[in-house]
Specification:
The chain has six helices and nine strands. The protein is an alpha/beta fold. Helix 1 crosses helix 3 and helix 2 packs across helix 4.
Length: 217
């Protein structure tokens, strides 16, 4: 039987702390959430390796290091209402639940959403509400949000998501695909969006965020 607690500690020490993650709240959350509960049964022994883990066809649990760096960048506090775009298996939702006041987590795949909601509920992450819908449209019913966290790479950030930020709110996303992709923070101030790029991050893409191609005749 694998010692998941030892593996979790090792993940934080070797994969996360070594990549400039110093936020106590973020580190504590990664020490706490049982990653093995959020991967398919056949992949449990791989839960703590430093790579993305497929949780459904074409959908991945993000590698711990970039996820931790993105969450540190988000600077989440207990008074924040957060929208997570792309629940996946619910692992990032669980981490977010320990950082934020409340989390609305949006998933397009209904089977994944149901499974994630069940896992989160069984582990007592009660401040997360899993909802379903198109990821690129966000979830306007609960808007505005203090923070929108995009759990995967996107080709561009749609206006629909930015409109769901409250004044002073931030959106954190990896924009672009492959090694040239960048972790960006977009801030809404007086109705204007400003953006800053922070570090390169290669993470798996989320469905629904490809730019619409313009046809040239």
């Amino acid at each position: 039987m694998m010692d998941f607690e030892a593996a979790r500690t090792k993940m934080v020490e070797n994969q996360i702390r070594t990549t400039d993650v110093t936020s106590h709240s973020v580190l504590r959350a990664f020490y706490t959430v049982p990653r093995e509960a959020f991967v398919p049964a056949k992949a449990k022994s791989l839960a703590y390796i430093d790579t993305d883990i497929e949780v459904a066809p074409g959908r991945y649990l993000m590698e711990a290091s970039p996820l931790a760096k993105l969450l540190q960048l988000a600077a989440i506090t207990r008074d924040h209402v957060v929208l997570e775009v792309g629940t996946g298996s619910g692992y990032a939702s669980a981490v977010l639940s320990l950082l934020a006041g409340s989390v609305v987590s949006l998933e397009v795949d209904e089977a994944l959403a149901a499974q994630a909601a069940e896992t989160l509920s069984s582990l007592g992450y009660d401040n997360v509400a899993v909802v379903t819908g198109a990821l690129e449209k966000g979830y306007a019913d609960e808007a505005p949000y203090d923070l929108i966290f995009v759990n995967g790479a996107v080709e561009e950030v749609p206006a629909a998501l930015l409109e769901q930020l409250r004044e002073g709110g931030r959106l954190v996303a990896v924009v672009g695909y492959g090694n040239a992709a960048q972790a960006k923070v977009l801030v809404r101030e007086q109705g204007v969006i400003s953006e800053g790029a922070h570090f390169n991050a290669s993470v798996k893409p989320l469905p629904g965020f490809r730019k619409t191609r313009e046809f040239v005749f």
